[in-house]
Amino acid sequence: MLLTMKARPAGPPPGVFVQTDLYTRRRWRRVQYLADQFWLRWRREYLQSIQPRRKWSSPRRNLTDGDVVLMKEEGAHRNDWPIGRVIEAIQNEHGQVRKARAELLRDGKKKTFLRPVKELVVLVPTGTVDRQSSS
């Protein structure tokens, strides 16, 4: 949606595109390769910037039930950004959330995943969702 500026998201890319496609005469393959590169850099660079790791230097908010999160997946294709809701935040003996159970819709069915906190990026905290729905 970011690249095409269209409201309806496109489906997954129809194939695997490699660096040699950058130098082919087929513009479509070149554009698909560049879109894949954009997705890789967005995942590696931007997602890391919105999830700072202040593990020991400053306290931060724990994940809580109801938070809307983006689930990081290494093998995810572009246009496949699994967004879910935390249904259970699992704390360790020190009261810190280290794992969470997140629920998302995949193929029209609700699925539940247990993920470490480092693989979840908070998009909308619980308090924000409550304020928006009451307005």
What does this structure look like?
With 135 residues, the protein is α+β, with helices and mostly antiparallel strands. It has 2 domains: 19-49; 68-134, no CATH class. The protein is 24% helix and 27% strand. It contains 2 helices and 5 strands; from the N terminus they run αβββββα. Strands 4-3-2-1-5 form a 5-stranded antiparallel β-sheet, covered by helices on one side. A hairpin with a 2-residue loop joins β3 and β4 (109-116). It is elongated, with a radius of gyration of 18 Å. The two termini are 27 Å apart. The model is unreliable at 130-135 (pLDDT under 50).
Radius of gyration: 18 Å
Principal-axis shape equals: elongated
Strand order, main sheet: write it out: 4-3-2-1-5
In which range does the helix fraction lie?
10-25%
First and last CA, distance: 27 Å
* Unreliable stretches covering 5 or more consecutive residues: 130-135
- Structural class, judged by helices and strands? alpha+beta
Give the number of domains.
2
- How many extended strands? 5
Question: What percent of residues are in strands?
Answer: 25-35%
